[in-house]
Amino acid sequence: MEEWFDGKLIRIDYLEFDHIFVVSDVHNDYINLTKAVKKLQMDKEHNLLIIAGDLIDRGYQPHPEELLDYVFDGVEKGNIIYLKGNHESMLCEHIRSEYHPSVEPEFREQYHYNTLQILEQRGYTDEMIRELGEKLEKLPLMVEIETGDTLYRIGHAELPDKELTLKHIVEKDVVWGDYFWQAYYSRFFKNKDGKKLILITGHLPTAKLREEFERIYNDRRDYQIWFSDEKNGLLVQKIDIDCGNGYREFIPSVHLGVLKLGTMETFYF
User: Shortest CA distance to 66 belongs to which of 54, 55, 76, 58?
Assistant: First the structure.
């Protein structure tokens, strides 16, 4: 693994790992993430799991303390890469503002998602929360993996569809982005260097993306991981792996979707 652009981008040698899996928008779901890891043996030596942001906030039966410990332990061991999503970005901003030593606890604004409240109930001190904020602040934004004639580019929301320079890696775009229109335009973009570019993100649940495509294109594929069309020799494919897991409390049919690179197999938990 190599860090580029001040740690915003991680480049990986595909041959360094036996199997590489990608998941996004776990949203505090420690139970199903660890179930997926066990079932697919993601924690086996020479396997890699990439979490494309939004590990935290929301969630059915949320366990942020166990989840964060588990993921950061995997990061230390080198078999997990944890990327920043918009929920990590929001939490960082809140911690910087409301947990600064100059702010008295009674005057803090409450974070509007459940992660901090649960962590404080589990015994997190202000110092521990500030340390968490520092860790989240330093998370990379993107991963690139090149193999043969294919380049995988992985991040949370919107990814550049051109050769990267520092100016293309803008945190606000990568963690928030304009997902639907990028998915639309990716159908018509040809990568100039001849490599097939596969952009893998989460952020927008596939059900919402499909609603837009059904309205415009009458696209009625299943509510699971979404793959853009590969027609007319197009060399960019867009894949959405957010299967709505953050809404499991309200919509029992959603999934935690997992994509295996190379074979492009999909798994649901």
Answer: 55
Nearest to 85 by CA among 139, 128, 39: 139
> How many residues does this entry show for the chain?
269
Asked if residue 18 is part of any domain, the answer here is no
The angle formed by the CA atoms of residues 70, 73 and 75, to the nearest 5 degrees, is: 110
Q: Is the pLDDT of residue 91 over 80?
A: yes
CB 16 within 8 A of CB 2: no
Q: How far apart are CA 32 and CA 40, in angstroms?
A: 12
* Strand arrangement, sheet containing 265-268: 80-82, 47-51, 19-23, 257-260, 265-268
Please give the residue range of the domain that contains residue 189: 142-249
* Percent of the chain with pLDDT strictly greater than 70: 84
Determine the 3-state secondary structure of 140 from DSSP. coil
C-alpha 157: how far from chain center: 8
Evaluate whether residue 172 is within a structural domain.
Answer: yes
pLDDT score, position 246: 93
Q: In total, how many domains does the chain have? A: 1
Please state, in angstroms and rounded to a whole number, the distance separating the CA atoms of residues 240 and 201. Answer: 5
What distance in Å separates the CA atoms of residue 9 and residue 3, rounded to the nearest whole number?
6
185 within domain boundaries: yes
Angle made by CA atoms 209, 168, 47, in degrees to the nearest 5:
70
Distance from C-alpha of 218 to C-alpha of 213, rounded to nearest angstrom? 6
The pTM for the full model equals 0.90
Cα(115)–Cα(186) distance, integer angstroms: 34
Rounded-to-integer distance, Cα 125 and Cα 69, Å: 15
158 occurs within a structural domain: yes
* Ramachandran sector of residue 125 (left: φ over 0; alpha: ψ -120 to 50; beta: rest): beta
